[in-house]
Specification:
24% strand; 12 strands; single chain; alpha/beta; four-stranded antiparallel beta sheet; 11 helices
Length: 330
């Protein structure tokens, strides 16, 4: 069996919080493990504060210097947590690229978009400026921007939100990376433009054989572009499996709550939407019990006394729940 393209093992990310003269480290990501194969799309889902974006920034080593990162992040044969900054600069944008949630803050507001894409080309390819400009225009054409020669001369504020996101995608794929990390790329867009961006990403993935880590809080969005799904809660992975399987048979009560809260065409508009009671615990208050236990409808006494292990309950389907995994003490 071929080695995975990206391998994350027992990832722990924590940040310092000062208390008097001392600094305590508070965990943001706890014991996170997953793999992505060449050409595969994995969805990373969870509400705000679950650790999704921290995970993506840890992979690219873009977290603040004071962050503490432990574990293993392997990309092909390279251990990224031990790589030099020079090696990481080479990897970012060539081996692994990232699309950010809000392109208006990611793009340089005083630089023409074509020049920004050309700059990414010059950083990783030994070509002349004229060739980089040509490649940039071709990248804009690849992401279905009309009249790319004209649009390349525009500044970000002259473009719509959907077109700015397409520019970000063009910049991300211009050096033909093997892995694309998409961090909530459709959140700020209306539904029609969301569908167009998702279709574009699916087309690019098929055309270039891209692997993808797609981060979102929206299960409906993720289902359209991923092969497998990983659900995070309070910094931990609580369920992982094939996307179709998790939508058909969600096992963790948090995953069930997320799916039940999504309105469908069959929803009765006279009935209020179902919600998950309570709120996410503060990361500084997490202990060695199930983090979801205070909000869970199926909890038992053991849930407050031990941290469930991530258990494979069916081929490729893992869940971190004592009840769903049948791990209750007898």
């Amino acid at each position: 069996m071929a080695s995975p393209l990206l391998q994350v093992r027992n990832l722990e990310v924590s940040f310092p919080v000062r208390s008097g003269d001392n600094a305590d480290f508070i965990p943001a990501v706890r014991d996170l493990s997953f793999e992505i194969a060449t050409g595969e799309a994995l969805g990373l889902v969870g509400e705000s504060g679950s650790g999704k974006s921290v995970t993506s920034l840890a992979i690219l080593r873009l977290l603040p210097l004071q962050a503490r990162i432990q574990g293993h992040i392997g990309f092909e044969a390279q251990e990224l947590l031990e790589a030099s900054e020079k090696d990481m600069q080479h990897l970012r944008g060539s081996g692994i690229s990232m699309i950010f949630q809000e392109p208006m803050t990611a793009l340089n507001p005083v630089m023409r978009v074509g020049d920004q894409i050309a700059e990414a080309v010059l950083a990783h390819q030994k070509v002349r400026k004229s060739e980089a400009a040509r490649v940039a225009i071709e990248a804009l054409r690849t992401v279905a921007i009309r009249d790319p020669e004209k649009r390349a001369r525009d500044y970000p504020h002259q473009l719509s939100g959907g077109m700015r996101q397409r520019v970000m995608i063009a910049m991300a794929i211009v050096n033909r990376p093997q892995l694309l990390i998409a961090d909530e790329p459709t959140t700020a867009l209306d539904v029609t433009i969301q569908a167009q961006i998702l279709e574009l990403l699916a087309d690019l993935r098929q055309k270039f054989g891209l692997a993808m880590l797609f981060i979102s809080h929206d299960l409906a969005v993720v289902s359209k572009v991923t092969d497998r799904l990983a659900v995070m809660y309070a910094g931990s992975l609580v369920e992982m499996g094939a996307s179709d399987e998790i939508f058909r048979n969600p096992l963790h009560p948090y995953t069930q709550g997320l799916l039940n809260s999504v309105p469908t065409l069959r929803s009765n508009r006279d009935q209020p939407l179902r919600t998950i009671k309570g709120s996410v615990p503060a990361i500084g208050l997490l202990n060695h019990s199930c983090a979801f236990e205070p909000r869970c409808d199926i909890r038992v006494q053991s849930c407050a006394e031990q941290l469930p292990a991530l258990t494979e309950v069916a081929p490729g389907h893992l869940v971190r729940c004592l009840v769903s995994a049948g791990q209750l003490p007898r």
